Batch of 2 targets.
Target 1
Amino acid sequence: MRISEVKSTTREQRIASHTHIKGLGLRDDGRAHAQADGFVGQDSAREACGILVDLIKSKKMAGRALLLTGAPGTGKTAIALAISQELGPKVPFCPMVGSEVYSSEVKKTEVLMENFRRAIGLRIKETKEVYEGEVTELTPEEIENPLGGYGKTLAHVIIGLKTVKGTKQLKLDPSIFESIQKERVTVGDVIYVEANTGAVKRVGRSDAYATEFDLEAEEYVPLPKGEVHKKKEVVQDVSLHDLDIANARPQGGQDIMSMMGQLMKPKKTEITDKLRKEINKVVNKYIDQGIAELVPGVLFIDEVHLLDIECFTYLNKALESPISPIVIFATNRGMCQIRGTEDIIAPHGIPIDLLDRILIIRTLPYTQEDIKAIVQIRAKIEGLTLTDDVLNDMAVTGEKTSLRYVIQLLTPASILARTHGREQILLEDIKEVDELFYDAKASALTLTKYHSSYVP
Ligand SMILES: Nc1ncnc2c1ncn2[C@@H]1O[C@H](COP(=O)(O)OP(=O)(O)OP(=O)(O)O)[C@@H](O)[C@H]1O
Ligand SMILES: [Mg+2]
């Protein structure tokens, strides 16, 4: 038997430009602080999202959808990420961009379906029979290879486990030794071995060893109480997609397999509709029995106008499902053609029937004061210093062009300042980069002026 942890397949977030956003910055009464958690201004949008977060936490929002609209650079993506921060790490948050559905390998609806399932969490509480304790000895015992030949093979492993109450010596199968090695268990670690499956889990380092010289970040845990052999409540947070993967490729995810396996025979397959249906069935059974709890999370679809009519039809249906996450869309488009149709113009490029079931939050353009405050936050994060006249100038430029444009000027301006042997960014640096680069509006203007000299 092979054992390994179910790795959560949560995706890395593309948030380098949003690292300063730590939450929605709301007071306890739900009103927005003028500036908090890295957020400045945009008060009503933030307050509306605060209500949404409460609804999600009290599980009253499943299957609903929200649309963030507003001009480019008004903080739509930032607000969505702030919502995910407010929800905390236990609530799944799956970000994607509309264009991700276009792959030559996978169907569009398949991509959507997968992300829907990434956004639905399941908290499983199981009482397991385990052997738990601090490892006092770890001795693999070898014998002559029974099939002849020269090598020796592993017969079994002797492992000593200690708790406050006593110690126990276990003789384990070689296959379990593999998972002990995978978890990098050494003498002095606190581990538990599941009695039924042999799955090994390293809890941490025993705090008796806390004084040893250690450069790595270690988690020290106390010596377990009670007997070595006992029943233990184990809580796991996984997404439905994690379950899909674990069951499609049974060599991964023994922990979940131990429970899923009791009800269905997993085979090595791809993730299919049939497999998902079966998993849903098992999940529903576990929810009914009170072993598992559904945690609907958030699916965030940025640049939603990039989806086409086929995807929208699918979304309409998916939102009706009893197990559906909250979906947050964002777009900066006004009236535009729905992709995949010949001539249907709709607000935000979203079909009216879908739009009809969505709550809409608008983000407004920033004032110069807001822009100043945001630029200052970004400068601090990037370790840059600016003079006051730089800030004022950027606020004026930002109002004319966009917040994103001025934020993007920061890094080149700092490079320029450094080549001049300065640490501080002066007005002349900003002026110079502003001349070197075009913002979107200026570029569009140039194009209309000189359009004859470009290739049509
Ligand atoms: N109110 C705010 N407070 C602090 N930072 C902000 C705020 N609004 C936007 N920002 C920052 O400004 C930059 C641009 O904002 P963002 O990417 O969220 O805009 P957007 O509305 O998603 O634009 P687009 O429509 O082009 O996708 C980001 O770095 C974001 O973190
Ligand atoms: Mg955006």
Note: The longest strand covers residues 120-144.
Target 2
Amino acid sequence: MVSLGYRLRASVPATGPEYQTRRFEARALAPSEGQELPIGSKAQMDLNIRGRVALVAGASAGLGEAVALALAREGVRLAVAARRIDRLEAVAARAKQLGAADARGFSLDLTDPASIAAMLDGVRSAFGDVDIVVLNGGGPKPGRFTDLTIDDWDGAYRLLLRSMLVLLDALVPAMRANGWGRIVALTSTSVKQPMETLALSNVFRTALVSALRTLADQVARDGVTVNSIATGRVDTDRLRSLYGDDQAKMREAGAGVPIGRVAQPEEFAPLVAFLCGQAASYVTGQTISIDGGLTRGLFG
Ligand SMILES: NC(=O)c1ccc[n+]([C@@H]2O[C@H](COP(=O)([O-])OP(=O)(O)OC[C@H]3O[C@@H](n4cnc5c(N)ncnc54)[C@H](OP(=O)(O)O)[C@@H]3O)[C@@H](O)[C@H]2O)c1
């Protein structure tokens, strides 16, 4: 169950059609003064996705791994995909311990269309139709606009945009036919506030968000929701590769965030899991920041 820091209890049975009204009683778990709520400890909300098939791309580490494990706690049948199969096997084993109905790793290189097709074949033959997909993978090469070559732009297009369009092309028809689906893309604050040294991210992640916003309207009446996350600074291999792998650099990266520190992946995952759940049935077409207040726009 997802951790939200407060208790929620459904007043209707946890089954039934998408449009069934659900009412919840919420009680704040206010920590006593000076006492902090431990991250990820108060798991109280049932997202009603037990047994659903969830595919998380880029799940061998970092944000994808954390999201996969959050979904595992909800009892999904979990497919985790990336290039490092040994790490995926470890994530799948942990997912089963946490409550996944099943969990398996699938080899995937997002830059290779044949690899995407083989991964999808494997997932479908193991689990059937995918109900939930988390679109995620490696970040692009850093660089200012004028530092980049046309090959860099081509490569980032294949990694960040084309790969996700291929996944959507393959997965959306079954979601629509089944009348239920959840699509969540992990992007970056660069889609709201371009970053000078991440030009490839600025361009292709914005294109992906725009594609998803367009898709959201088309599939909304089929029970399929489509949302994006604008990710701030989270302590993962990717952040360390951009900011350097020492504590001083991490503190520096955190100092620029209103919350005053970078996030841990476990703080990032619960909202993504929530968007994958039944409870988020009326949230679609959104790009939601998880960034500790980093994006300064009024609607950031
Ligand atoms: N962490 C942050 O602060 C932050 C902020 C904004 C945006 N983001 C973006 O969010 C995404 C996830 O970031 P992260 O921090 O979790 O990074 P990470 O710890 O480096 O993890 C990246 C994941 O993507 C997989 N991956 C990389 N290239 C792939 C490929 N060609 N095909 C399939 N899988 C691939 C990696 O697994 P394998 O190596 O096993 O393939 C790994 O599982 C990235 O796009 C990153 O740029 C991160």
Note: The two ends are 27 Å apart (CA to CA).
